[in-house]
Amino acid sequence: MSIANKQAICNVLMEKAKTEKDIVVLCSDSRGSGSMAPFADSYPEQFVEVGIAEQNLVSIAAGLAACGKRAVAVSPACFLSTRSMEQVKVDVAYSHTNVILLGISGGVSYGALGMTHHSATDIATLGSIPGMRIYLPSDRLQSEKLTEALLEDEEPAYVRVGRNAVEDIYEEGKVPFEMDKAVFLREGTDLAIIACGEMVLAAKRAGESLEQKGIHAAVIDMYCVKPLDEEAVRKAAQTGRIITVEEHCPYGGLGSMVSQLTAAKAPCRVVNLTLPDAPVITGKSQEIFDYYGLNEEHIVRVAEEML
Amino acid sequence: MNAIRDLERKACEIRMDVVRLVYTTGCGHIGGDMSEMEAMVALYYKHLNCSPEKEKDPDRDRFILSKGHAVETLYCILADRGYFDREELMSTYSRCRSRFIGHPNNKIPGVEMNSGSLGHGLPMAVGMALAGKMDRKDYRIYTVMGDGELAEGSVWEGAMAAGHYKLDNLCAIVDRNRLQISGTTEEVMSHGNLEERFMAFGWNVLSVPGNHMAAMDGALTVAGQSAGKPTVIIANTVKGCGVSFMEDNAAWHHRVFSREQYEQAMAELQDRRARLL
Prior knowledge:
The complex is a heterodimer of chains A (307) and B (277).
Chain A: H1 5-17, E1 23-27, H2 37-42, E2 47-49, H3 54-66, E3 70-76, H4 77-80, H5 85-94, E4 99-104, H6 122-127, E5 133-135, H7 140-152, E6 157-160, E7 183-186, E8 191-195, H8 199-212, E9 217-221, E10 224-226, H9 230-237, E11 241-245, H10 254-265, E12 269-273, H11 285-291, H12 296-306
Parallel strand pairs in A: 1-2, 1-3, 3-4, 4-6, 5-6, 8-9, 8-11, 11-12
Antiparallel strand pairs in A: 5-10, 7-9
Helix pairs in contact in A: 1-7, 3-5, 8-12, 9-10
Chain B: H1 4-25, H2 30-35, H3 37-47, E1 62-65, H4 71-80, H5 86-92, H6 121-134, E2 141-146, H7 153-164, E3 170-176, E4 179-180, E5 183-184, H8 185-188, H9 194-200, E6 204-209, H10 213-223, E7 231-236, H11 259-276
Parallel strand pairs in B: 1-2, 2-3, 3-7, 6-7
Antiparallel strand pairs in B: 4-5
Helix pairs in contact in B: 1-3, 1-4, 1-5, 1-11, 3-4, 3-10, 6-7
């Protein structure tokens, strides 16, 4: 049984905090939903609760970082990416503080709770800020590798993870990971599917289905949305057809960035599969994905239409 | 520099630098520069444990100018303290490709954090003060806010956290000049009894005449002795303080001198300085 990405991240933070006392986790009444309660219980001296105050969360994290701490601010992605956007812009990115922003229950994880709780614009909002890096890991194992890497550098970053456990993409002990380099889950010459976050699983399955139909699709886990792995996109473009898949609105996300890059440097046909530019339907996250075609079957259908 | 008279003379000299900077470069939020002056001079020439030599010292005191638009005073003080060349500041401030931006930027030596968007300084100062407590360090954190700035909700998020965590290593100064760009603070968004508001958030509150050097110096000394509570100094100041035609006039929130006004301002300040020698 797998665990949620946020829980995997907490496990890494717990392990590191044993000896690395400069790691500080901050929550905005979100230690439970963020799976950070074990950290708060085990390392109370390295944990800061700010209450329901996301602006304060980010500014306090920046202040801690300015005094040498490695601050990890954990809050629902919907609030972190909008309520505290100016604090991210000024106190983290512009002031260049060593803060990791962990957006939990990202995308439409909260399902039927509605648009207030969805973060379908977080890549666009935070990714537009100079100096902000954006990561959407696909599974627990990549989440661990990413967290370890982010703790090693001193640059600001936003990490978005979903609410629930997701099936493993990678195998334990065999996780290919190079910072800011996309992972080719499958090589292919007919087309390329580029996905991020929890959409990687649907892309991976679609790649397998297409192979059974004799269609050779490359499948790329673009966990590093910003900085986008340009080399990987150029390679994908050599197939002549790219499908991007993301749990995000149509503008300013992975699809936009891949389209912008290919249009300028590697022209090819690109189809963006995204959430709509509108409040999404009510339902569980999988029901929402299915409604908008963010699933294996629709990716396969789009691929076949492109050929 | 400890004697009150020396600090007063320094405040007068920095006012002259600020007037010259604003006049020669053609921009600046001079009204607020003048009202915050005694607080800034008392901090940088007596109370703050910081210097160019200690710029990266982990034990230094930290200061955040939350009302970042009044950056000219900070820049002139940092130049005078030797963090960077005064003439570079005077000749390039706000000019094309200058490193001296119209709000604090931490690429400038001596500037701890970027500011300019109001309501950020206090919450960041809370983070710094928490770090000091975690590391059992003795350094102190100071921030200067404007009174118009207090309409920002994030100020009160920070105030709440500072009270909750009993951050007695934190001192906030409110430049209470009662004027903001659209008029008086009480017309734009009234603060009522500011002292009671901060007290309700668990703060130690001092209210002093903020352009009176001995009073500011005394308040900062008392703030340094606080135990178990953060301290806020309500510095009751006069916008444009030190130049007769600017005082208590909202029009001087952001305005540039004519040649005649510049000469009159410098003459008034030179006269004041002569009396302090």
